[in-house]
Amino acid sequence: MTAAPSEMATVATETSAMHTETARYEVVVYGATSAGVCAAVAAAGEGAQVLLIGPERHVGGMTSGGLGYTDVGDERALGGPARRLRHAVAEHYGVAEGHFAGPEPHVAEAIFVRWLEEAGVEVRLGERAGVAAAQGSGGGIRSLGFESGLRVSAGVFIDASYEGDLLPLAGVEYSVGRESTALHGERFAGRQELVPGRHTMPAWISPFASDPSGESEGPLLAQIKPEPMVPVGAGDGGVMSYGYRVCLTTAPDRIAFERPADYDDGYWELGRRLLAQYGDDEIAYTAGRMLGLEPNLPGGKSDGNSLGPLSLSVLDGSAWRYPDADAAERERIRLHHLSHTAGFLYFLATDAAVPRRIRETMQRFGLPRDEFADTGHLPHQLYVREGRRMQGAYVLTEHDLIEGRHPRDSVALGSYHLDIREVQRAWRWVYEHPRPIGMVFTEGYLSVQVPLYGVPYRSLTPRAEQCDNLLVPVCLSASHVAFSSVRMEPQYQMLGHAAGIAAAQAVAASVPVQAVSMERLHERLDATGQVFAL
Q: In the chain, how many domains are there?
């Protein structure tokens, strides 16, 4: 039933738009994320003929796309490819495992490319699945078409994309964004209370462009979501904010932050008001508190993250549209986030309203010349923290995580805290004397520790009546709250690994993915170093 893998991986660019090609594989992995790489390598390691295909131009997703600082959680959960990657990074730099927070982006990509080549995986990049191109009968995907005209068929498909793009094509039920507290009885679901914290806006910042006092309602400043907030605990479909995780350096050959061609001074008025509110508070507002500028990567590089109320994350609600948007709208949203990223770096380094101490810090940094050369030295991967989420055979919820449940069909362990990033920057009237004052609010951030928990195989499978040959290790079946913990790259890598092995076993046994033998799957996961029980 299985075919021997080819000796070397082949990497192909996008096919001519008018060219039609049909190819047959045993396992097709859509999405060249780190989960996709690990799924493809695992399936090939089981003897399956595998195609890794996706719209990206690079393999590795966020692991090679700017997220150098790897969120691990409890290290006892690390196994399979996540542990293998950790070892490969240490070996590359000649240091002990865990010495660095993560690899440089180009090093991560090189490791993934080597894995694919060694496994004999065929790779085709620049290929986007076409609208309604999945054709099935009897609850399965039989072939998948692409915008280029390419068509592929397979025994099992794996959706390893951040967006979950095969779910609607396969007719599999999914959700987007926050549910209400009532749906699963989750305490932390829905719109959050407006409470103080590192990620929230301080009081007294007016949302109105023409009135800094906040007394007279008018057009809103940029970067504020105009729609009103729903009540606390209600579902609103909001997703965690997106952004770019930038790689910065202090190296002498760094590329200085330049004024972007589309830079808009008015877009950063919110930042000026925020800085004026902080005044001389050197603890509350520093470049490090906003970007995380510690040299936590090899070569003195830093992985810039979103740490404050104004950051690399875009909170105007544009990300809410992204999961179900078409390719053109997604590209507009991506470019908006990219513009925000380049503009934010330039604003912090040059704007007169930014305290000198912050400007001087930022001017010591720049973009590294040896990273992301084909995308202007900014990352090639938008940080899609949350796309679609399958509603599959088992919906993982807050209760599973907080109670540390370990289902018998667990295929990997999770441990990272519930980590819901900011969902929106909104405004509301605050009833002060003698009249209400409009104020800006940042809403949605939440961090709650959880113990080690198991991720069940059933959360990777659709309901059998909807599709019997699809596995989903990234946009898996989980609530918004539970997904906020599972969404870390090491978990994606381990879940992709499990999906790859399960896919190969389903093809070899000619059974639906829901009928894969858990005994055999656990046997192979254990043999390949996966940790799924303690």
A: 2
Same domain, 439 and 458: no
Residue 101, pLDDT > 90, answer: no
Q: Which domain holds residue 141?
A: 11-178+452-527
pTM of the model: 0.95
Residues 100 and 32 in one domain: yes
* Of 56, 48, 47, 41, the residue nearest 26 (C-alpha): 48
Are 429 and 324 contained in the same domain?
yes
Task: Write the pLDDT tens digit of every residue in 495-525.
Answer: 999 999 999 999 999 999 999 999 999 999 9
pLDDT at 132 over 60: no
* Same domain membership, residue 518 and residue 443: no
Does some domain include residue 358?
yes
Tokens matching residue 67: 């997220």
CA neighbor of 112 nearest in space, from 65, 47, 48: 65
Rounded CA-CA distance 274/309 in Å is 9
Which of 334, 354, 330, 355 shows the shortest CA–CA distance to 344? 354
Cα angle value 101/104/109 (rounded, 5°): 120
- DSSP for residue 123: E
Question: Do residue 483 and residue 436 come from a single domain?
Answer: no
What pLDDT sits at residue 64? 97
Q: Per-residue confidence at 164, pLDDT binned at 50, 70, 90? A: very high
- Pairing between β-strand 174-176 and β-strand 437-443 as defined by DSSP bridges: unpaired
Alpha helices in 179-323 (DSSP H): 181-184, 269-278, 287-291, 318-321
Q: What is the mean pLDDT of residues 210-231?
A: 97
Quick check: 281 pLDDT over 90? no
Which of 451, 455, 446, 452 shows the shortest CA–CA distance to 396?
455
Domain check: are 435 and 299 in the same one? Answer: yes
What is the domain-level CATH number for residue 111?
A: 3.50.50.60
